[in-house]
Amino acid sequence: MLRFLLRRLFHGVFVVWGVVTAVFFLVRLTGDPAVFLVDQSATRAEIEHARHLLGLDRSLPEQYGAFLLAAPRGDFGESIRSKQPAMRLVLQHLWPATVELAVVAALLSTVLAVPLGVLSATHKDGMADHVSRLGSLLLQSMPGFWLGLLLILLFAVELRGLLPAYGSGTWRHLILPAVALAAAPLAQNARLVRAGMLDVLQQDFVRTARAKGVPERTVLYRHAFKNAAIPFITVTGLSLGFMLSGAIIIETVFAWPGLGRLIVQAVPGRDFPVIQAGVFVFALIFVALNLLVDLLYAVVDPRVRLS
Amino acid sequence: MRSVRGMVSWWLAALVVTLGAAPIAAQTVDGLAVDADAELVVAVPDDTTNMDPRIGMGSTRSAYIRQVFESLVDVDAQGKPVPGLALSWKPVGDLTWEFTLRRGVTFHNGEAFNADTLLFNLDRMFRRNLDRWGVKDVTAATSFEKVYPTVSRWEKTGDYTVRIHTSEPLPNLWDAIGREPLVPREYTVKNGVDALNERPVGTGPWKMTEWKRNDSMRFERNESYWGSPPLFKRLRFQVIPEAGGRLAALRAGQVGLVDSVPPLDAGVLGRESGIKVVSSPQKLYCRIYLNARPKDKFDSGGKDGLFGDQRVRLALNLAVNKEAIVQKIFHGYAQANASPVASVAYGYAAQEPYAFDVKRARALLAEAGWKEAGSDGVLKKDGETLTLQLLFPAKHYGQGFDETTPAVAEMLKAVGVQVVIKTIDYGTLLQTVTKGTLPYNGGFAACRTSNNLDADDYLRDWTAITLINWAPYPPELAELYRATRREVDPQKRLKLLADLQRRVRDWSPVVSLYQEVKIYAVSARVLRFVPLTDLHMDFRGVALRK
Amino acid sequence: MRRGAGAAVASLVILGLVGAAAIFAPLLSPADPIKNDLLERLTPPMWSAGGSAAHPLGTDTLGRDVLSRLLYGARVSLVVGFVTVIAAGAAGVALGVLGGFYGGWLDDVLMRTGDVQLAFPVLLLGVAMLSVLGPGLGNLVLVLALSGWITYARIVRGETLSLRQREFVEAARALGALDGRLIWRHVLPNVWAPIAVVATFSVARTIIAEASLSFLGLGVPAPTPSWGAMLDEGRNYITTGWWLALFPGTAILVVVLVINLIGDWLRDVLDPRVERGM
Description:
The complex is a heterotrimer of chains A (307), B (546) and C (278). Chain A is mostly helical and 307 residues long.
């Protein structure tokens, strides 16, 4: 077990390092942020001075070396745009904004999926099933930002501000962005639950339980669902990671002050330190979640440990 | 009332109650009762990057910084300079300016504002003695030492007077120095420049109490402000990037004032009860810059810029239907301006507008040697096709700019210019013009604003080779510009400035598109809000109804 | 006929119609999609007050005809969707087979790169790379393909690995049979089914990804019409110019929906184990 853990941990560290290095070089290819720092009547000498202050006139390997030394201490440099420590800026945007959004959306997309999926499975080919499947298909076929725009149109504009459309502050601000973010994964999860339940419901032990006269509700939740739960847990853990990804666009649409939006704003401004720190945090969270899910799987299913 | 004492107590109590109630009842503005403890929420399109004035000035951020920090020269609603932290300023001879500072002003932390403060700020602005003060160098928005290299030294001649010396006459020094917000000396030296961003301390009417990045900034009334303190207690800038969101918030009563209303919505809003729409011309001036540099002055292709001929540039100006832009895209909320100087700047002189005259444009092009080669309307000269590779930084200057540029490209095509629009991001544009790698037949669309009040800021554009100068002044205009820089007598200088503007209008270095008019929407609860021509919102004198 | 085949047939028909509309766009469009005309700005669809038959679905902020842009935009969406998947699929299958068959360091490098790429938020990869490469249809396809190849590689690698270990393969190789022929006759027939299913859903996802990138301003550059870019232009005019966002949004929804239905049916027919519930 320990060996398994260590192996996965090492693998995770490697992945994070890989991501960060890739971003480091990629971002330096996009060009020179020094031009943003000076005003319109700047001469070349000024811009050179700005580059020097940013440390960009050193060679790439030198810069990379300095970066590797500073990063483990949490020092990702200062944001070029606002002169504040990049990691601090990233963490300020991650918590509570993005975490709130991702967690609430993940919960919505998993918790609601269960009753929907079970309902669909038990009323297979009935009205509820068709409606649920059509709805799922529709939600999965819509770009997230399109759904977001429709929600804004409906709730904030047509219904005259029933729910706030932009910014954050109260729990009411969280509703629309979380719904927009959770919609497609919810649809997907509901179908997963449905499929899993259908599979399990046909198996022998279920028929035995029914034959024994166990009430239907117990059959469903105690026996069938427990077995369908394992792949379900996996999906939940992974979906949290994907929520972070999807948050990038949702945060832009709803002007949610989170990490996704910070990074999207930092890219055209070539704010290397912020981009690097932000991607690092994203990758770290993603890898950590994967690790947790793997761990959970290993605990539940011994076969995995041995592979 | 058994005793005299009892009666006196009763009357005293009544008196106290009445007197106590009086100030509350007496708070009225324009005959309406106002709430002195209210909070005004303002919806703004973006957050500031940094509260340190040296770093953060520009675009919306001036409004954040100027609530907390103040400058020597203040500005009124028409854009005219008025005393701020300086009571007066005057030239002493040709090479010196004297500033007399306001007395009795303190920073939010109690530190006194005096001549020593100004000396420290000048050191920071011109990057001198930074080691002596122990403050670190920052990459600033404006580098004073480069833009005003003739400023030589400064000294205090009293606790509240400072003299600044220049090596050559500099008639607009009051403007250059006067608009920079000032920071406290002891506080900055003790806590470092980062403290100016984290816990800004200024002399302004508002103290910053909280800053949630990219979300909101809260301010509280400065009770010991040198002028009359604001008429309401708390102010909050709420960041709502989408215009639709800002307006939705206004209609729902969540905010009292919206900064930057799109022109199309302004008309609709104006008809709603409970909302007022006010506007003011701004200094943001949008143009198409054409490559007219001689080949020894830029790095692309070893050819002269294609638009070096003044007739060609003038033709392009005549080909653009500026009224259509103002009416159709901005619904009247923009200005067509033929002077290179913004209409609200000090020293602006109105010029004869560029007529929309396609025939004359074509004639000018023909005169300059561009003849129609075939039947497809393409213009050629010496085998060269009249092409404009237009760099277009979309999504940087706002909706109006994004709609205007393609429309203008179409208008230029109508006179025979082959316009190829290259949509790029703003950073790439900056890099291209900085490195000088604009193609010889290239141009770019961009807007230019000013933190200063004087016209000099605009006319300076075509002097030194900088990233914005693609049509350097010919010798006569350069000489005239230098003359405006040397003339200390205000009236004579205004005449010289007017002359220079007229000649620059004819020389036509850029295709002017429009000058911005900023639109605000105010809830009926908010009284006496007057928009400024500056990138700033002044809440002194504004009150909120009960 | 299997249940669900009706929906699949209808979907194929609709997709065919969209494809035809894209191909015949020049014939079907009432106007030039990129010519702008300031005076015709923001006219509503013809059934609304102020609309005209010259512009059946109205005009946008620059006076360009919405219907024409919608038809030409179909080209972008379909080309990006299919070309990306073909490119990613080809590359993924090739790399997956090589990795699975030959193993060793090639396989390791492949899997490690794949892991690293998966930890990268996809949209962020797109944003970063497009900033480097600059906008353009080719670059867009490249970026989207780069983020998609792993899935195919993984599936194929899995199948190849399990196949390679079968005895008859060992025997055949010992006898001198060409690797290429073995791959062609034994590996590929087993993988094309799950690949086809994954590929179909990928087309849908790619179309959405393209729309998202265009929404952020990174897709095909103006003035080429693309549904995502049209949505982005329309978002500031949701109340006053509702037709600007509604039509491209609905178009994306319909196309992605039918592709998903086709994918569902394919999965049911070919291999019920793969991509369950997706």
